[in-house]
C-alpha cells in the first residue's frame, strides 16, 4: 500500500485515496465538432503501460482534491506529484 | 508401551508439567513446550498423514512452518475446528485434539492408498487429460474427485473466536529472531530507533539458541550461551518491542506489512476463553530488516517420502531443543557439512548413528574429523537409491556414484535405518523479500537465489541473505547494519568466532538411481505428490515456462507453497532443458507466507460490523411501528409497515391504495442532497444535466437527468433554485456519493473557471414526503401560514416555511404522480416532523409507506429508477425520455455520445411497458423476453426490469427493456418460465393518469 504525498495535506496512506485513471486527457472543448473516431479516442482509449505513467488521483477521504501523479507501474514508485492544472513537468 | 524417546538435555521443555492430548482419538501425553510434532515423535509416532494424490503414508519432515506432510485438523468443534495446521507449529495444551487429514477411514488403513498402486496411470495432468470428455460429465467427475480428495474439513458453523486488527508503526521492523535478527533489533534499539522484532516461533533465538556444541563459539562461549546473554540484554531496551508467535504474512510496497500474532492457540480451552485469538498487525515501517533465515533442502531420490525421512536440521532440533529422539537407527544423507552437526549432536547424547551417506568425494573440515573420531561410518561418493518400509522407514539402499555423478555403479548396500536425516543444503527464505518487489540473483557456487535489488528501505541479513556460516553471519550482518542504519559502530565488530563447518557442497538436483526414472518416485513436492518424473513429463509435453510447469504438475501449489521442493523443481527443469538457473527465474512467491485464517483477515468486521450502516432520524419511529427494513446502499430504509400479520404483498397493496385514495407519507431522508452555490451554478447545471437550466426561476424545481460521458444514464433527481446563486440538488439514494465525486471531478479538472461550490448535505436534512389527494389539507394543518393555492405554490415549486419553530423547506414535487409535498427540516427535527405529519394526517388516515410501495406507485406512473430500469447501457433515448434531452444546448456531459453510430442504432433495447394477457399474472423481475418460441438458439430480446400488481388499476404492470421496443407497441411477446410460457403485450410505460391530473387534485 502506497504512501501518497497529497499536495494539500501531506503524506497519507493509500486507503484515503481513489485512483482516477490516466492524466492529461482533456475533455474536448467542442465535442460536437468531432467525428465518431475522434470522440471515441477521447472517450475510450487509455494507455496501460508497464513503466512510467501519468495518473489522476483524488484524496477522496481527505481534502477531496484531485491531483496528478507520475508513477512507475512496474514497481509502484511514485516519481512526482503535482497539482491539477499544472503542466506535466515531463513530456 | 512405547520406548523412552526423551533425552534429558532440553532447556526448553518443562518435564515437570505433563500435557495430555488426543491424536486420532487416542490419548497421549507430552510436556509443556512440546509441539504436536515433537510430542508425537516422543511417543514413537511418525505416520501422521497421507499424501494428497497417491495417499502414501507420510510422516513429520521438518520442525517448522515449512512442513509439507504433517498437516492436521485441530479441534472437532464445528465452529472452531481448523484444517491444514502444521503439527510442527501446534503447541500442545491440555485437551488438544488433532486428527490426520486426507485419509479415510483411518491413517493406518486408507482406501485412497489404492491410488499409489495406480500411480503409473496418474501422471501429471491426469485429471486434465482424462476428464475432458464428454464435457457435460464434468459435474459428475468433479463430485467424485472432490469427495476423495480434500485437505481437511472446514468449520460448518460460524466462528466463535474473537479476532483483532491493529495498526503498528515503527522506525525499524526486524523480521525473524534468529541470531542476525537479534543483532539487528539490539543495534537499532540502542540507536534510539523504535524497533519491533517479530518471530513466528514460541521464542526468539532461532537455531543458535540450541547450538550447544564447541564447534560453534562466539567470544569463547558456545554460541547458545552467547546468544542467551544477548537476549537478556534486549530486555533493558525500552524502545524495542518483541512479538513471538507472530508470522509475517505479506510484505507489500512502501514497507507495508501484514503479520499474524497468535495469542491463544497454545492455550487450553479454559485459558483462552474470551480472549482475542489472533491479531492481524498492519505494520508500516520506515526501515525493514529481513532476517528470515533459511530452509534446509531435502534431497530428491527414489522413495524419499517415507515416514522417518526427515530434514537433518529437524532431527537436530528435535533432539537438542525438544529432547526427542526421532529414531534408534539413525542415518544421515547429505551433500554438505550440515548433517555432521546433527549426527554429532545425536552421537554425543549416546544415540546411535549408523552411517552418514555423503555424495561428495571427501571433505576436510573440523566437524567431519570429529564425526570420524566418534566412529560414525561415512560413505563418501554414495547416494541413496531406494528406501524400504511402508508406514515407517526400515532400511535404505545406497550405491556408489559414478565419476560424473550421473549414474550409480557397483551393487546396492542395504543399511538398516528408521530415521534418515537428509541435508541438501540451504535455501534462503527470500519469500517476503520478493513479495516486496525485490529482485533475486542466482549464486552459482552453492546454487542459491539471494537478494539483489531492494525495492524499498530494507535489507536482508543472515542466512536469508545467503550467509550460512556463523562467522560470516556475524561479520556481514554487523557491517550491513552499520550502512543501513547509518551508524558508526555495532557491538559485533571483531568478535572472535569459532566455526568448524565449511561451506563446500556438491549440488545434484535429482540423484541418480539404479532404476530408470519411470520406475522411481523421487518426490519434489511432497504435499502435492509431484515427482521429478512429473516435471520431466511436463517438459516432454512442451511446457517451458516455470509458471506453466508449476500449474501443470501442481508443484508448489499446496498449503506449504513448495517451501522445500521449489528449488529442486527449478533445478530439474534447468538440467533437463539446458537453461541456466539464473535465467530460468523463479515462480512468484505470493502472500501469505503461511496460511491465514479467514477470522484473522476479517477481524472484527463480522455480523453487524461487516459494513457501516446509516439510519434516518425517523428510524426509531419506523422500528416502533414494526417496519420491515431493506438495505439501500449503506442505508437501512423502511421497506413496508405490516399490520396485523399482513404479508408483504398485503401491506404494500394497502399502502399503495391509501397513498392515492387519501394520504401517504414516506421517509425520503436518504435521498442524496448537494448544496450548490456560486455565480456560475446555472451554467454548471446546464453542463451536467441533459436539459436546460438557465431559465429556472428562483423558487422553482426541475427534474434532471445526468449522463456519463458515454451517453448512458447515470443519475436523476430534482434540483431547486433557492435563491439567485443557491441551488439544492437531490440525487438517488445509492448514487449520492458518486454524483458528488463526479461533479467535484469536473469542477476541479475540466471547468476550474466556474464559480461553483459543492457541499454534501445529505445528512443535514430529514425529509418527509406527504402525498395523496388529502396532502394539501394535511399541509394546511401543519403550516397554516403557508398559502398552498396552486397560484402561489404550484407543482414544481419551493417555499420556505416554519412548522412551529422548526424552519423547513417545502418542495411541491412528486414521484408518485399524486399531489405531493416534500418537507425538509434540519436532521435532528426529523422525528418531530414525522410525528407532526402523522398527527395532522390522522383524520385523513395518513398511511406510512415504505420503499416497496414507493416503487410500485412510481411504476404505475412509468417513472424510472436509475439502477433498476437502467443498468449503465441505457441512454435517455433508449428510455424514451427524448423530451428531457435539450437540442439547443451546445454541450453537456454525454451529449456527443448520443450521436455515436452505436447509440443511434434502431435495435437498441428500449424501455417499454408490458401487459400480461392474464391481468392477475405478475411477472418476475429479470425474466427474459422472446418473440419466437421455437427458435434455436433462442434470441433474447430483453428482460423485465420492474413488475408489480397495481391495486389502483387492479391489474399487473411491468416495465421492461426490449430490443427495438419503441416500434413494438401492441406486439405480442413471450416470457418463457421454467414450466410454462407467459404471453404479454408491449404497451406504453405510463399506466396511470397519463394526463397528470392527479398532481393538481
What would your notes on this structure say?
The complex is a heterodimer of chains A (91) and B (1001). Chain A has one helix at residues 36-44, and strands at 3-6, 10-13, 18-22, 52-58, 66-72, 77-83. Chain A is mainly beta. Chain A has one domain (3-83): Folate-binding fold, CATH 3.30.2270. A four-stranded antiparallel sheet of chain A has the order 3-4-5-6, with no helix packed on it. In chain A, strands 1-2 form a two-stranded antiparallel ribbon. In chain A, a hairpin with a 4-residue loop joins strand 5 (66-72) and strand 6. The longest helix of chain A is centred in the middle third of the chain and has 9 residues, at 36-44. The mean pLDDT of chain A is 94. Chain B has 1001 residues and is α+β, with helices and mostly antiparallel strands. Chain B has six domains: 14-130, 2Fe-2S iron-sulphur cluster binding domain, sarcosine oxidase, alpha subunit, N-terminal domain (Ubiquitin-like (UB roll)), CATH 3.10.20; 162-294 and 428-490, FAD/NAD(P)-binding domain (3-Layer(bba) Sandwich), CATH 3.50.50.60; 298-424, FAD/NAD(P)-binding domain; 522-590, Arc Repressor Mutant, subunit A, CATH 1.10.10; 671-767 and 776-844, Gyrase A, domain 2 (2-Layer Sandwich), CATH 3.30.1360.120; 862-1000, 2-Layer Sandwich (Gyrase A, domain 2), CATH 3.30.1360. Chain B has 24 helices and 50 strands. The A-B interface holds A 1-3, 13-14, 18, 20, 26-28, 30-32, 34, 36, 39-40, 43, 56, 58, 60, 64-66, 75-77, 84-85 and B 252-254, 256, 284, 437, 455, 709-710, 741, 744-745, 748-750, 752, 890-891, 895-897, 899-901.
